[in-house]
Amino acid sequence: MIIGVPKEVKDHESRVGITPAGVRALVDAGHKVLVEHNAGHLSSFPDDEYQAVGAEIVGEASAVWGLADMVVKVKEPVAKEYGYFREGLVLFTYLHLAPLKELTDTLLAKKVTGIAYETVRDRAGSLPLLTPMSEVAGRLSVQVGAAYLEKEHGGRGVLLGGVPGVPPGNVCIIGGGIVGTNAAKIALGMGAKVTLVDLNLNRLRELDDIFSGRVYTLASNAYNVERAVCEADLVIGGVLIPGAAAPKLVTKAMVSKMKKGAVIVDVAIDQGGCIETARPTTHSDPSYEVDGVVHYCVTNMPAAVPNTSTLALTNATFPYVMKLAKLGAKAAILEDAGIAEGVNTYEGHLTYKAVAEGQERAFTPISQLLSK
Questions:
Q1: pTM, to two decimals
Q2: Keywords assigned by UniProt (predicted)?
């Protein structure tokens, strides 16, 4: 198979879909890998490292897309890449289609097989390709939030850890999954007072045990969420419904009652965000204010630490890349139920239920299409 690795073009996206280590394994297995010039440069993987392990460096993105049987990326394609789509192309990347109707339309019109990292499942039913970036984003959210609480960035001027004689800052984390758990680790490590809100009482019990009672746990309902965010200096949104748009758990009214100079970091923004006042931002223009509250809603937060993020992501994605390359997309989908869960578009059909519901479209299960 010919595998293409284009340079990411989303604003300040500095990760890369395959590392030199991955290229070597693919080449050793008899595949051909095309890497766009400087695709790995910002992740500290220069072209000569790719060439040394057998990759072919290609000067133009159009050649990578045009020659590849499968394109492996990090982030969802942006409008300038839509023209590269063609029938029969396999695209393996984060797609986050629920809020992106135009991208969905184009993938369907061009009959691209779109396999989304964020909906692939393992045998335990978890989301192995979402987990590493959720870990990075969760940890980074507190680091970013602490910086934006500084007066220079429009924040309240609060040091999260406090000092002797001065209480620490209050951090409210919405969602007790991978993002929330990792955010709590860093917030506690910085000395903050941490409140974690989740709908699942069993998960709250687990978190209480994990953190030995140092995290305040709250059952999620509108009353508790409002009280928690109004007391918070930093609110982190980490709610996920796989493949679907995130629910708006923090309303405009709640935000208007928050402390002036408080900070919101909505990690769920690439699925539409769980804060009603959140809108997608970029690394070049990362924040804005609503009712005196600073909002940081960058859709590709892990790109701020691309070397760590690329290594963490490709550790998880590469076994799937290898299986898709070895078997071809159709055979891999038939053999591996987890890869089948990752298929969002196939030969002009929308195949993922949560995306269909979010966009009010019809869908056809991939199992039904492949059984014909």
A1: 0.86
A2: NAD, Nucleotide-binding, Oxidoreductase
